[in-house]
Amino acid sequence: MTSSSEQVLSEIKGVKHIYSQSRPGLATLTVEFEVGQHRTDAIVRLYNALYSNQDWLPAGVGVGQPMVKPKGIDDVPIVAVTLWNDDPQQGAAQLRSVAHALEVELKRVPGTRDIYTIGGPDPVVHVLLDPQRLAGYGISLTDLRGALQAANRSGEAGALVADNRVVRIKVGELFHSAQEVADLVVGMHDGGPVYLRDVADIRRGSDQPEQYVWYGNGPAGDDRAAGVQPAVTLAIAKQPGTNAVQIADQVISRMHALQGTFIPDGVHTRITRNYGVTADQKAQTLIKKLIFATASVVLLVIFSLGWREAVIVGAAVVITLAITLFASWAWGFTLNRVSLFALIFSIGILVDDAVVVVENIHRHMQLGKLNLVQAIPRAVDEVGGPTILATFTVIAALLPMAFVTGLMGPYMSPIPINASMGMLISLAVALVVTPWMSLKLLRHHGQEASAEDPEGGNPKVIAGFRRLLRPFLRGGEGRRARLFMLGGIVLLIMLSVALASFKLVVLKMLPFDNKSEFQVVLDMPEGTPLEHTNRVLTELAGYLAGVDEVSDYQIYAGTAAPINFNGLVRQYYLRRGDNVGDIQVNLIDKKHRDRKSHEIALAVRGPLHAIGQRYGGVVKVVEVPPGPPVLSPLVAEIYGLDYAGQIKVAEQVKNVFAQTPDIVDIDDSVEYSAPRWIVKVDRVRSARLGVSQATVVAAVDTMLGGEDVSYLHDPDAKYPIPIRLELPVRDKAGLDQILALKVAADNGTRVPLSELVSVHKSTIERSIYHKDLLPVVFVTGDMAGKLDSPLYGMASIYDTIKNELMVNGEPLEQYFIQPPDNPYRYSLKWDGEWQITYETFRDMGIAYSVGLILIYLLVVAQFRSYLVPLIIMAPIPLTIIGVMPGHALLGAQFTATSMIGMIALAGIIVRNSILLVDFINEEVARGVVFEEAVIRAGAIRAKPIILTGLAAIMGALFILDDPIFRGLAIALIFGLLVSTVLTLVVIPVLYYALMRKRIKPAGEPATE
């Protein structure tokens, strides 16, 4: 059935992957759509595929109607409230009823979506059967089932009309209490009635627990609970497009308002998740940083140009940010962490245009040759062309990043789009608002001429540049010095790149964020009872309760905690069963602890693994990822000819994982061999005695699993309370009581099951996993050590498998990008963080290349030369000299955000080159000797270039402390610091070297 379903679902437009898990009695298929597919459209296509192909499921095949459960980012609860009680007389059942009442009240908060409760047993009316008493009264399961269903019927039977009135008639009463159920007559024996209480014990109470939830306080908790207490957790999600901060605040306010009414005295509540306050804290922090970044740029201009110029630049930045925020809202972005980072990152870039224009106006004022009204148009015209070109080069570098595909696309898109919109707006402000404000504020200021240099350059700076650049100029005499410079730069670039080869700079998709939570996931061997799993979880929690930074923790045995963004992709919401569980660990706020959450997770992993291994379980410490989560950081997909062979290969690969240093949390998709007894029906004998196999199957299922034959009608219950036929728990330790049960034969006699069946010991079939219609076995792991990057662990495992692991006498083939060409040969496909890293850096590399091509074309159009753009773009590789050593110096990993910084640097550095080359051309056009023009360009344009570079650096300094965007900040700071200094030297020298024979002063013919 699963294979047929996969074929149908694979035809749906927009599907990226189809995963399936087939196990006895159940198949789960996960359809993963491409990023960007509209949720409603995707669901409609899925339903259409299922219901238009129902003929693949014949009516008599025994397969039920498929159930569709859409899961997306908005299904992640933003608030989790844990209810616990320290009264020993009150348990999880009472807490569950309180939580169910709260569900209705909290749903009244506008914007809430799915609200559900985890933990606590369901209420049920138990009809605990006694096979001996049933046999003594000659009552069968069929009799009980029929009697309960027939007696719990009621209906409107019409009306009587008499005495000018209509009287409605209702026939029959429904069960309202367990006593009414017990008093039901289920048969006759020796001329007297047989009541249900005569053949069974009837109790209304809690169901046998299928899950346990516990609450415990850590050393950093606000209140002290003695040990762990029974608990339930209420999870609340929000509707798409709504404000998480507002909804979380309203939900929590409503919870406080319900204290004492819907929440009885003695029931404690604890907010164990509040993504609203997390988002609000980050937003408030980033808004403050945005203000400080703007203020720092204004201060920079005050000290370099003056307070009036600083007011002009500050106003330009504020106006640009305001319009950019409006444009971002109109585009459809929300005010979140990434969009705010985009604005902070853009501060240094957005101020460039205004700084260049104001600085040039300031320079022309110092010349004193023109009044302000005349100087402003000339100054703006002088830098207008290169400023417009430079703005579009920055946009050309950034905008292609908006087309990054995969999970990282939506995560990154606010940065290039917001920055590009901001650049366009800043250009308009610089060319319109800045000149007008300059006219208003500088009217009576600074029109005196500088006695030092009639052309506005500082003689000391010009003299310094003359001493610095003269050895590299001097026509043919400077050729040797220029070659030495070129060789030195190439050597520096090679050494910088080599830092990654020697692992002094670690490559990673995204670094770990400093969160206030992590999870401990436990998988016990199949067949482990719930109580034993709960015992292991309690021991794990006992260790965590001693970790100083732990605020509180919740134990979930037999079920999963409310999913987070990590659990959404890893499908933790499907974790059910006696052998699974996890612990949600909450830490105190990062302001109150010295260790980061990743350091705490590393510290507890070893002791937790030791506890798990002692009981034969697999323990994983799962951190909340900063960006797109994956099934596991390290995933090896094993393909091959047959599933048994794949499992053997997976075991070998798993051993390689275990032997590789720093590889932790190793697991696979292969279940343990769990015991199973098969009750085999003797079809010949059952046919002779007139008992069908279906009757036997139904009887055993009822006795062991329970059968809800009807429901109690309680006006105070939110959910139906079932009337359940089953054996007492004490009688489920073996098959003796079940086989003693007598079933009705066709001739009316009662036949014990022991005469119809035989019992054979066996094992449960293992689940079969498919990915994209191919059988697959997953081997998963993580890397925790000095490098802390799964890419290096994957490389080590790859080498070991390549050199040592043999399958059928041949090396195991390994694939990185696509599944194997021949999936029927044993092979391995690497997935996990590697796959997203590859896709992201591939797309960003393409975006980088497209940006460079666009920059080249723009510069060609401006300078009408194919050589000049190459000179202008030459400093782009110089950024590596700053970026890579900067990461090594600060011990930071080179991540996707670092790559964003490098891409942005390409546009920023080209801006500086354009200003230099354009000034050289203007000087030559005025009749200045080419060599002197080169020197003057570096000296006079150094001030605006350094100012704009410092502005970008100061903006980046404010995001240096963020774990995720730290790479971007380091790339900008060190890349700008080094490349700006080198650009002031390299561009003039390179332009001189390549153009000295082509450019002559005005009036002299150029040499071709």
Largest beta-sheet characterization: 9 strands, antiparallel
Fraction in helix: 40-55%
Structural class: alpha+beta
Distance between the termini: 76 Å
Radius of gyration: 37 Å
Please report which band the strand proportion falls in: under 5%, 5-15%, 15-25%, 25-35%, 35-45% or over 45%. 15-25%
What average pLDDT do the residues reach?
A: 87
Low-pLDDT residue spans: 446-452, 1003-1008
Q: Say how many strands there are.
A: 32
Helix tally?
Answer: 30
Folded structure, characterized:
By secondary structure, this protein is an alpha+beta fold. It starts with a helix and ends in a 13-residue tail after the last helix. The model is unreliable at 446-452 and 1003-1008 (pLDDT under 50). The protein is elongated. It contains 30 helices and 32 strands. Helix 10 packs antiparallel against helix 14 (414-441), helix 11 (337-367) packs antiparallel against helix 29 (930-957) and helix 12 (372-398) runs antiparallel to helix 14 (414-441). The strands form nine sheets. Strands 3, 4, 11, 12, 13, 14, 15, 16 and 17 form a nine-stranded antiparallel beta sheet that branches. The chain has a five-stranded mixed beta sheet with strand order 19-28-18-32-31. It has a four-stranded antiparallel beta sheet with strand order 2-1-26-27, covered by helices on one side.
Record the SSE blueprint.
Blueprint: H1 2-9, E1 15-23, E2 26-33, H2 39-51, E3 79-85, H3 92-106, E4 112-118, E5 123-129, H4 131-137, H5 141-151, E6 155-162, E7 165-171, H6 178-182, E8 185-189, E9 192-195, H7 196-199, E10 200-206, E11 212-217, E12 228-238, H8 244-257, E13 267-274, H9 275-304, H10 307-331, H11 337-367, H12 372-398, H13 408-412, H14 414-441, H15 459-469, H16 479-501, E14 517-523, H17 530-544, E15 550-557, H18 565-570, E16 580-587, H19 597-614, E17 618-623, E18 634-639, H20 643-659, E19 663-668, E20 675-681, H21 683-689, H22 693-705, E21 707-712, E22 721-726, H23 736-739, E23 742-744, E24 750-752, E25 757-763, E26 768-771, E27 774-775, E28 777-783, H24 790-804, E29 806-807, E30 810-811, E31 813-815, E32 827-832, H25 833-863, H26 868-873, H27 878-890, H28 896-925, H29 930-957, H30 966-995
Parallel strand pairs: 5-22, 31-32
Antiparallel strand pairs: 1-2, 1-26, 3-12, 3-13, 4-12, 5-10, 6-7, 8-9, 11-12, 11-15, 14-16, 14-17, 15-16, 18-28, 18-32, 19-28, 20-25, 21-22, 23-24, 26-27, 29-30
